[in-house]
Specification:
Layout lengths: L19 E13 L5 E7 L2 E6 L2 E2 L2 E6 L2 E7 L2 E2 L1 E6 L13 E4 L2 E3 L7 E11 L3 E16 L18 E7 L13 E5 L5 H12 L11 H8 L2
Antiparallel strand pairs: 1-2, 1-11, 3-8, 4-7, 5-6, 8-13, 9-10, 11-12, 12-13, 12-14
Length: 224
Amino acid sequence: MTAPAPTGPLVWDKVGERFYETGVDRGVLYLPDNAGVYGKGVAWNGLVSVTESPSGAEASPMYADNIKYLNLVSAEEFGGTIEAYTYPEEFGQCDGTASPARGVYVGQQSRKTFGFSYRTRKGNDVAGNDLGYKLHLAYGALAAPSEKGYTTINDSPEPITFSWEFSTTGVNVGNGLKPTALITIDSTEVDEAALVALEEELYGKAGTAASLPLPDEVIAMFDV
């Protein structure tokens, strides 16, 4: 049942309602098998930033009877950019690199799709950065060739950062929803036991490797 709308004047910036998001950590790379199951999760160390860049959903106006008759909206797509100081060895095959012998890497090879998860912090004016967090689950990602800038060591040395733009292909979702390439879970709003179960899949546990459940499986976990 929908909660009744509050009555009375609106109040802005109430204590405990000054929310914000910050940070990024717990990056995990998942490689799908031939059946599209995202297993083989490996930790992605050195994650600097993840930029989500949706595209599409553009209106195409149609005119008739001397008026704007309707708007047709194009399909929305999800893509983004991953920036990091390093990357898992397993990501090489997603970045167009093959390794025919240990320590030997051949570029310009076929690129494989991958799944990816990462965590961002959710805070407010009372709890600060410790209010909660959001889990972001990305599917069907395909990395584009990226630029790597190597510079001389000087009196202000900095490690280089690697950056990859990626596009995605959505996976099917039930419940009458359209295919999607991104699911976000808010720890402050979901069932705690279900959240623990999801994290055990994402990060693995004793005797079980990390894996990325498909959208229908994620939704079923929290549909309680």
